[in-house]
Amino acid sequence: MGMDVSGIKPTSEKGIYFRANVWSWRPIHSLMAMANARNKYMLMTQEQWESMDHNDGAGLQTQKECNDLADALESILKNNKELREFGFIVSAKEDEIKIRFPLTGDDDEMAIDIRNGSFVSNTKTIPTEYKTSPYSVSLSHAKEFVVFLRECGGFSVY
């Protein structure tokens, strides 16, 4: 089970289709929210973003929108410190981006709690057993999504 992302007007084979299972889509979807927030919510509406968490065909309609999102995601993926500030953990050993929640105060493991698409700031320390999230995506798979965005001509999530 997962998200099938189809290009609307692909310009190459890489823009035809992108697939993420349910465990890897959530971090990608959360990264899109982070990108949108960094760009003053100009990349997509809240409704568009929320709909992309369901298999109902939501997405971006133009290549320009996709390029803008790709630029924002690429910038985020290059900056591990910023990822940590927003609650993602990047493991260089495992090429993995992981959502960490509930909250923790460790310098190496900043965290977010995702509630209704909102990021909650790092405000408290919690027991270790609550720090792990099953949601993760490899850094290379997240970068594949950026490549897909640059070549899809708009997309729909099914």
Which key phrases capture this entry?
alpha+beta; three-stranded antiparallel beta sheet; 158 residues
Helix-strand layout with pairing:
Blueprint: E1 2-7, E2 17-21, H1 22-38, H2 46-51, H3 63-77, H4 80-85, E3 88-91, E4 96-99, E5 114-115, E6 118-119, E7 136-138, H5 139-151, E8 155-157
Antiparallel strand pairs: 1-2, 1-8, 3-4, 4-7, 5-6
Backbone shape: globular
What is the first-to-last residue Cα distance? 11 Å
Major β-sheet annotation: 3 strands, antiparallel
Number of domains: 1
Structural class: alpha+beta
Strand order of the largest sheet: 2-1-8
How many beta-strand segments? Answer: 8
**Which residues form runs of ≥5 with pLDDT under 50?**
101-132
Mean pLDDT, rounded to whole units? 78
Order of helices and strands: EEHHHHEEEEEHE
Could you characterize what this model shows?
By secondary structure, this protein is α+β, with helices and mostly antiparallel strands. It has one domain. It has five helices and eight strands. It has a three-stranded antiparallel beta sheet with strand order 2-1-8. α1 crosses α3 and α3 runs antiparallel to α5 (139-151). The longest helix has 17 residues, at 22-38. The radius of gyration is 15 Å and the shape is globular. 34% of the residues are buried. Mean pLDDT is 78; it is low at 101-132.
Q: How do you describe this structure in short?
A:
By secondary structure, the chain is α+β, with helices and mostly antiparallel strands. The protein has helices at residues 22-38, 46-51, 63-77, 80-85, 139-151; strands at residues 2-7, 17-21, 88-91, 96-99, 114-115, 118-119, 136-138, 155-157. The protein is 36% helix and 18% strand.
